[in-house]
Amino acid sequence: MDWLATVVNGALLGGLYGLFGLGLALVFGVMRVVNLAHGEFIVLGAFLGVFLVGLLPQLPPWVLVLPVALAGYALGWGLQAGVVNRAVRSGNPLTPLMLTFGLSVMLRNAMVQFFGADSRAIDGGVLTTAGIDLLGLRIGLYPLLVLALAALLFGALHWLLRHSEFGRVVRAVADAPEMARLMGVTPARVFNRVMGLAIAFAMLAGFLLAQRTLFTPFSGVERMLIAFEVVIIGGLGSFWGALAGGMVLGIAQLVGQKLDSNAGPLYAHLVFVLVLLFMPKGLAGERR
Amino acid sequence: MPPLLQLDEVDVFHGDLQAVFGVSLRVEAGEALALIGANGAGKSTLLRAITGLTPARRGTLCVDGQMLGGLSAERIAALGIALVPEGRQLFPSLSVEENLLMGTLARRPGRWTLATVYALFPVLREFRQRPATLLSGGQQQMVAIGRALMANPKLLLCDELSLGLAPLVVEEIYRAFSRIREDGLAIVLVEQDVARACAVSDRLVCLLKGRVTMSGPSQGQPRERIAAAYFGE
Prior knowledge:
heterodimer, A: 288 residues, mainly alpha, ABC transporter involved in vitamin B12 uptake, BtuC, two-stranded antiparallel sheet, 12 helices, 2 strands, globular, B: 233 residues, alpha/beta, Rossmann fold, 4-stranded antiparallel beta sheet, 9 helices, 33% helix
């Protein structure tokens, strides 16, 4: 029973990991840019949360999900419009890679400068300690809500991309940017919104994770590693695969932690290596 | 009244390589102009220059008296110039209907809607939910034409409609062509098949190595004159 609870909690943690991967996959899928600063934005979401919780102590922390996500959208939009579009226009895939790598270094050091290098966490209040008993399993209420939110966001994005005009334009630009221009679409503007969404997801997930795990300005690299693993396990280009990939990693990490309390993430990375060896196209990669 | 499309002394480059040299031509409202010429004569490049995807480096391009110089491809699309590109270039991630709806983004309402495009090509209604690139070549060409029409253009540019299609399918496409022209849509048509080009157009312009070697009415041109312009002497 104890093990089952661990697996369930791992799957719930996986919802957050799935969100990490979602933004990375979206940006790569639409503009073929690997955002190496993705992890730093995840951590920035956590620091923004710390700041907002300090500023508005009377509010329950979960309310702050919305301003953190909105700030993420604005930052992502500005980043894309300000610099990344120029790098994409260069036509050389290495240019945006170097740009986001440099950006990650700058962001990391700026966060050390402003917030210090100490480990922190956000106190999520009663919500993070409450739990419910389900068929004899003790399940944290907070991870359950996080998973529900993650599933909701995945569903919303899926709907947006499949059934809205914006989604149609995003898919068309990803397919053939030049043809999309002949339809009156400006790809750079589409990219702005896509990067806005991706960073909103990243900062939101970073904020939520900070309520159960310690973080420092240097945590971005680990977070980005998880995001990459999620995308690869899920299968490149598959959104629901990213959610499944996040769950696989979350379960592997918590089960590993139970076996060996010092090395939970090691087991997650080992599972990643196994997937890479035996299912190199990922869980959802068979169709492509 | 200015012509619908006027090109004056247009030079177009592919990188450092010049592909079009000092081309001047005009298309009146409601007119169909056929651009003929051998492979590499610069026909497709000239179309790309009109759409703004490869802006002309020298010379002027005007649509309805408005200069296109400096306008982006997306602005030019909004002015009412639509392209049916060579090789169709549908969006593979989009269904047939979604491909057609991409034409509406130019925000030009008019005669052409999903209903009228489906009436023109009934087979597309049947396959509307399918991924566009799973259709046969001829059906894909219909999607490409429909997508361009959905923008309700003033000027339709067609690049090699018959390329790679079976003769029967080509017949079907060109039958639709005459219905497309009913309400006076102006067309610039690039076509390898010279006889076909003459049959469906009002005027003919022949390019050779990026230069205009002949222009005149499509009907009644002596074969030898076209051959000389086409192959050079």
